[in-house]
Amino acid sequence: MDSSPGKPSLIERLSAILSREPEDRDDLLARLRSACDRNLIDPDALSIIEGALQMSDMKVGEVMIPRAQMDVVHLDDPIDRIASFVVDTAHSRFPAVGEGKDDVVGIFLAKDLLRYYAGREFDLRDMLRPAVFVPESKRLNVLLREFRVSRNHMAIVVDEYGGVAGLVTIEDVLEQVVGDIEDEYDFDEAGDSIRLDHNGRYRVKATTEIVDFNHAFETSFSDEDVDTVGGLVIRQLGRLPKRGEVVALDGLRVQVMRADSRRVHTLLVERAPAPSESPQA
């Protein structure tokens, strides 16, 4: 088979670009971006490389799900109540707690409920997997390596005093490299960008166009400077937001549910409560 010997392969072209050892990371990225501009590597490949390099400088505390947003199961709750909670939240794993969120006893897998509903012997405490605890300061690349070796998918994040600060999943780490991964917060249909959840709040894709957002929430934001609601949030803050941040927009409370170091993915939107005219004593 003729392999067109006159035309250099992709590997040969990349080797030519990187023939001289990069002086530093910025130099390396500049060359890779130049290669992308010249169609030597795919933009998605460049994004993954950039994410992998950036991840090595990030810490667990930057991507964790904050304590206040942790969905946990309580060991003292009836199984039927736990099952209802699992269905409503639609996660696959939950920290199981005793007296409170600082008392994490183990990790409960939603699939273990099948044993209960199949009529098999079931003891919630016996079903728990050991919880892994990591400090907020742990680097993401180190945590990813530990996840791979231990085959754990979730870790409980603790602060410097030993209290629970939040949780982090392997998905949270991988999203820093490959971008958003479909999960329980994603939408069933590509066009379904605004969805009502079980608490009466709306989950909104950050890529929702301003005109569609205005129509859904009876607002009148301009789309002259930004096209999407994610861009609106970024403009309001003047920077990329972090997960859990809240922005007030024209009577709406907008919370960032999913975001990474490069983009906003999902927002939680609800009507801001009206200020009390006469505060109670």
Description:
The chain is an alpha+beta fold and about 280 residues long. It has helices at about 10-15, 25-35, 45-55, 60-65, 80-90, 115, 125, 140-150, 170-180, 210-215, 230-235, and strands spanning about 65, 75, 95, 105-110, 135, 155-160, 165-170, 195, 200-205, 245-250, 250-260, 265-270. The protein has a five-stranded antiparallel β-sheet with strand order 8-9-12-11-10, with helices on one face. Helix 2 (about 25-35) packs antiparallel against helix 3 (about 45-55) and helix 3 (about 45-55) packs across helix 9. The protein is globular. The relative contact order is 0.10. Mean pLDDT is about 80; it is low at about 275-280.
* Number of DSSP-assigned strands: 12
Main beta-sheet annotation: 5 strands, antiparallel
**Helix proportion range:** 25-40%
The geometry reads as: globular
How do the helices and strands line up, and which of them pair or pack?
Layout: H1 10-17, H2 25-37, H3 43-55, H4 60-63, E1 65-66, E2 73-74, H5 79-89, E3 93-97, E4 104-109, H6 113-117, H7 124-127, E5 133-135, H8 140-150, E6 154-158, E7 164-169, H9 170-178, E8 194-196, E9 202-205, H10 210-217, H11 229-237, E10 246-249, E11 252-259, E12 264-271
Parallel strand pairs: 2-3, 5-6
Antiparallel strand pairs: 1-7, 3-4, 6-7, 8-9, 9-12, 10-11, 11-12
